[in-house]
Amino acid sequence: MYFFALATDYDGTLAHDGVVDSATCEAVQRFKATGRRVILVTGRELPDLKRTFPQIGMCDLVVVENGALLYNPQTEEERPIGDPPPPAFVEALKARGVPVSVGRSIVATWEPHEKVVLDVIREQGLELQIIFNKGAVMVLPAGINKAAGLAVALAELDLSPVNVAGVGDAENDHAFMRACGCAAAVSNALPAVKEEADVRLEGDHGKGVIELIDMICRDDARIVPPQRHGLVLGKDRADRPIFIEPQRGSVLIAGSSGIGKSTLATALTERMVEKRLEFCVLDPEGDYADLEHAVCVGTPKAAPALEECMELLRKRTSNVVISAQALSAAERPVFFRQLLPEITSLRASTGRPHWLVIDEAHHLIGAERGDVRTVLPENITDTIFITVHPDAVAAEALQNVHYVLALGEDANATMAMSCRAIGAARPPDAAPLAEDEVLFLERASSQPPFAVKAIRPQQQHKRHTRKYAEGELPEESSFYFRGADNRLNLRAQNLMLFVQIAQGIDADTWEHHRRNGEYSRWFAERIKDAELSREAAAIETDAGLDAGQSRERIIDAITRRYTAPARAPGPGPA
Question: Are 449 and 242 in contact (CB under 8 A)?
């Protein structure tokens, strides 16, 4: 489920001539039977609405007075959102012959009295605003409108506006419809309202609401165009934007170590932020600890606590990175196996986090695990799996993959392996990729894999100093200085220890690992720094360098990237 609630205007939308017919009421009840919520958002005052709409109890919450008052039909609790109108203001209007209706916060009249209303506001120096609604003139405190009232209602229901479809017909509906994840206009809506709508309904009044309800129950997020909630992956070679849409399924990003998978994932999180979509990154190795627009739980020395993670995720508008770097390789899957059902439950009730990013998926939900169905829903969507080994990820987790992104020079082989992992037929090979392209496949499409020039993150995807420079990599990821005859066994579990050991070992041991290309291989596969690996490989194969010179250059390459402070450019050595 993507749209968890319907927010609807009353007059001209849910109601026709002030009355909601039985067919519309039945559709609303059918909508609620799916587990979704209904919020009424109206400019009417509460006593009038109760008289006119006896079925008000079918709404979960009601926003009245154009956003100034929240009403719960189940408890009959009223919660003012705006301040009451100044008595002197009301008396001045009456004294000038303006017919007014006064609510808890709203003062309502009709055109053409708006000029007198504006004159009184100016004369008394009041911070009041005028809102129009098909001939009605509503006076409210500054900042109070239907969007403000809906925001309070959604906070009560613990829902994000992204997961709400809004429907209306008039000028005062613009604000709350714009705030929703889907804006729909009934056929009798004003042209300006239709112009801004994502969905233009064929039915008028209640018929249009019934039409929208049926669309949501049938197609959910697919009722809006791709650009509304879809993440821009990049552009194809015809310069057309390619979107990853929610609710289509999950995403698999595959490729060798150091090829740019986490860089691409970082760029996608930036698109999520732009769309007001909340995300959670499950980060086994601390690769996303410095991700912008997110709070990180867990450090290289302190493991994340389950309750702390969930407390942050329950907060609306929170993006969370959960780093398990302090846990051993064996402990990480166990921790995330406890965490995933909690996240799944939260998503089922609130829709948040909107996207779940699972890095090193082959470690966290490996094929050898027999409990995947207990930690992940059967039809998981809005989830990005990132892995070096798609064939090592549990098949149950990948069965709902809709998009496959393969990176690197071996993208065709990676795509073939990914398709085997998700149970799809092997597609034909694509032409070689350019350096900034990824191979893209949409599973439900008849189009074979094609190249997409992928977006780049605005934030620099820098190497994570705390993890690689000072943290503690697991034994299997550490570098071991052993020498040609294995007479040594010196473990470097981070780059600082690597530098310290490298400075003290003998030339023969250093040259042994250099000739075998082991430094560049470790930087690529374990440190995941392709740039450092390339520089080291060039040093390893430079026959003009002796042991001391090559050692000095590799150590310099490390310290420049991970430990040296930024220095202003200056003259070189004399």
Answer: no
